[in-house]
Specification:
This protein is an alpha+beta fold. The protein has one domain: 6-pyruvoyl tetrahydropterin synthase/QueD (Tetrahydropterin Synthase, Chain A, 2-Layer Sandwich), CATH 3.30.479. Helices cover about 20% and strands about 30% of the residues. The chain has 2 helices and 4 strands, in the order ββααββ. The protein has a 4-stranded antiparallel β-sheet with strand order 1-2-3-4, covered by helices on one side. Helix 1 packs across helix 2. The structure holds the ligand Nc1nc2c(c(=O)[nH]1)N=C([C@H](O)[C@H](O)COP(=O)(O)OP(=O)(O)OP(=O)(O)O)CN2.
Length: about 140
């Protein structure tokens, strides 16, 4: 399996209103480094998983919807704890939707690094499209 990873970062504010999270129940800020790893078993006709510029742009556009936001007030997180894991899933699902037309991609992993010693990831299996646009056999 080939993989391509690009990275960006975002600042958000949020609270985790559950006693499980101790002091993080209060409103606090976080700067997440966000990595996206795209995977495919066969390289495309250019010998790449996908263009790095395209991968970077996709990630940036998705993060633009979250940057400098208080996730407690973000409609997509209403009634949900915006843990690192949940935000990783959110980013992955939006990226997958934006990349739906790109052929050959099989898997996407989004990793959010809270700090140098702690991170969480979410992996999505993607519906594989053939180079002609239809479903491809796995
Ligand atoms: N699995 C997760 N655990 C925690 C998350 C998370 O998103 N996923 N988030 C937090 C807090 O938001 C914050 O990032 C850290 O808060 P803190 O109280 O410092 O948490 P720690 O667990 O590192 O330290 P404690 O000794 O438990 O206070 C927390 N956990």
């Amino acid at each position: 399996m080939f993989t391509l990873t690009v990275r960006d970062h975002m600042m958000i504010a949020h609270s985790l209103p559950d006693p499980f999270f101790g002091p993080a129940q209060s409103l606090h800020g976080a700067t997440f480094a966000v990595e996206t790893t795209w995977a495919r078993p066969v390289l495309d006709e250019h010998g790449v998983v996908m263009d790095i510029g395209v991968a970077s742009e996709l990630l940036s556009r998705v993060l633009d919807g979250l940057r400098y936001r208080n996730l407690d007030e973000h409609p997509d997180f209403t009634g949900r704890l915006s843990t690192t894991e949940v935000v990783a899933q959110y980013v992955a699902e939006r990226l997958a939707a934006r990349a739906a037309g790109i052929a050959g991609l099989e898997r996407l992993t989004v990793t959010l690094r809270e700090n140098p010693d702690a991170w969480a990831s979410y992996t999505l299996e993607l519906p594989v499209l053939s180079e002609r646009g239809g479903p491809a056999p796995r």
